[in-house]
């Protein structure tokens, strides 16, 4: 059975993610007590269920600490993955303010602030975050999160998933990034009037960037680094590795290199136990926010 655990900081989009798995044909259970996970898996296995998604959050309190050992036990017989959703504290506070929802850990009888309970939640969930695929939803709308999950489910995960993600430094480095490359030293198509409104996915931008030897050299240096070290990450037992590639606006240079890197590694098949995904945080996102 394929078991997908969905967790993360309240307000970061767990309900959006759970609906995405439901749309993909998973049996989905929200807010399941930790003590019932093993029993649920056994029951669904007897019913010949092939894939389930379970969402849990920090309202389960100290029992969260039992989850890593439980998942390790389940991995003896099932494929188990963890998705951890996160966002910066300011974004979470704004979302709770907009939706007027109460944080699951807040207590009207105590004087703790929303920021206090968010930090308490981060502490409680830290053991799960450390072994999960993480997505920072602070700068992406709900439809982008659904799209990223859908793209992931189209793949057939074997071993290590390498995620190439473009981003804008002016909006911050993605919190899930494991390796970060900075392209701000490269020629910027933004200053070319005919290219400003295009992206790194467009042929004129690709043609422009390909003219510069420093762009090609940056590409080769990143390829060489990853070719040297990817197997070490795989042998380290990781399931996910996010390679974040940033430029100023996350629209031209980083998008172009992410596409080229994903294409290169996917087509060369140099590592059989690694598969590759691409994401474009700024390009994939609009003003719509996760509620």
Please give a structural write-up:
Helix 2 (37-46) links the parallel strand 2 (27-30) and strand 3 (51-55). 40% of the residues lie in helices and 19% in strands. Helix 1 packs across helix 6. By secondary structure, it is an alpha/beta fold. It folds into two domains: 2-138, P-loop containing nucleotide triphosphate hydrolases (Rossmann fold); 160-280, no CATH class. The protein is globular and about 60 Å long. The protein has a five-stranded parallel beta sheet with strand order 2-3-1-4-5, with helices on both faces. It has nine helices and nine strands.
Measured as a percent range, the helix fraction is: 25-40%
Give the CATH architecture of the largest domain: 3-Layer(aba) Sandwich
What is the global morphology?
A: globular
Q: Helical segment tally?
A: 9
What are the secondary-structure elements, in order, as H or E?
EHEHEHEHHEHEEHHEHE
Summed over residues and divided by their number, the pLDDT gives a mean of 88
Q: Which regions contain 5 or more consecutive residues with pLDDT less than 50?
A: 287-291
Number of strands: 9
Structural class: alpha/beta
Give the number of domains.
2
Biggest β-sheet strands, sense, barrel? 5 strands, parallel
Strand content: 15-25%
CATH homologous superfamily title of the largest domain:
P-loop containing nucleotide triphosphate hydrolases
Identify the CATH class of the largest domain: Alpha Beta
Strand order within the widest beta sheet: 2-3-1-4-5
- Rg over CA atoms, rounded to whole Å, is 20 Å
Distance between the termini: 31 Å
- Report the CATH topology name of the largest domain: Rossmann fold
Binding site for GTP: 57-60
Domain RapZ-like N-terminal: 1-154
Binding site for ATP: 8-15
Organism: Polynucleobacter sp. UK-FUSCHL-C3
């Amino acid at each position: 059975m394929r078991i997908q655990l969905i967790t993360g900081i309240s307000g970061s989009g767990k309900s959006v993610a759970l609906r995405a798995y439901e749309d993909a044909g998973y049996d989905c259970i929200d807010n399941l007590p930790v003590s019932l996970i093993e029993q649920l898996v056994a029951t669904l296995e007897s019913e010949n269920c092939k894939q389930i998604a379970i969402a849990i959050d920090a309202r389960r309190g100290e029992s969260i600490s039992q989850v890593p050992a439980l998942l390790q036990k389940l991995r003896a017989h099932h494929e188990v993955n963890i998705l951890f959703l996160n966002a910066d504290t300011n974004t979470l506070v704004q979302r709770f303010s907009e939706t007027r929802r109460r944080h699951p850990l807040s207590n009207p009888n105590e004087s703790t602030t929303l920021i206090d309970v968010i930090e308490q939640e981060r502490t409680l969930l830290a053991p799960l975050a450390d072994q999960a695929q993480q997505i920072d939803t602070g700068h992406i709308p709900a439809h982008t999160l659904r799209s990223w999950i859908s793209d992931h489910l189209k793949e057939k995960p074997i071993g290590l998933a390498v995620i190439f993600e473009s981003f804008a430094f002016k909006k911050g480095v993605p919190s899930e990034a494991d390796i970060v490359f900075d392209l701000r030293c490269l020629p910027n198509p933004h200053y070319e009037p005919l290219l400003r409104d295009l992206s790194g996915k467009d042929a004129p931008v690709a043609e422009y960037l390909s003219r510069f030897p420093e762009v090609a050299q940056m590409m080769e240096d990143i390829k060489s680094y990853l070719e040297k070290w990817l197997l070490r990450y795989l042998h380290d037992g990781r399931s996910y590795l996010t390679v974040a590639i940033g430029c100023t606006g996350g629209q031209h240079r980083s998008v172009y290199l992410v596409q080229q890197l994903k294409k290169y590694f996917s087509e060369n098949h140099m590592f059989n136990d690694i598969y590759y995904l691409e994401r474009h945080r700024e390009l994939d996102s609009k003003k719509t926010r996760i509620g």
